[in-house]
What does this fold into?
Amino acid sequence: MYVCICKRITDNQIHEAIGRGARKLEDLSRELGVATGCGQCACFAEDLLGDAPAPSGPNRALCEPVHSDA
It folds into this structure.
């Protein structure tokens, strides 16, 4: 289904961009052009981002080096 009529962007294209790492509306705007025309698609595009699963991979907070004062 079309999400952005101005740029002819579909929900499938947005899901693919999310799969490639898009996490914010700005990411979708940069990669696909979402919300760069009239802007009516911005809310729906953000909803699709909110439905995306969290990125997998190492938790960076757990990967930080531990400093010891010993």
Notes: The longest strand covers residues 2-4.
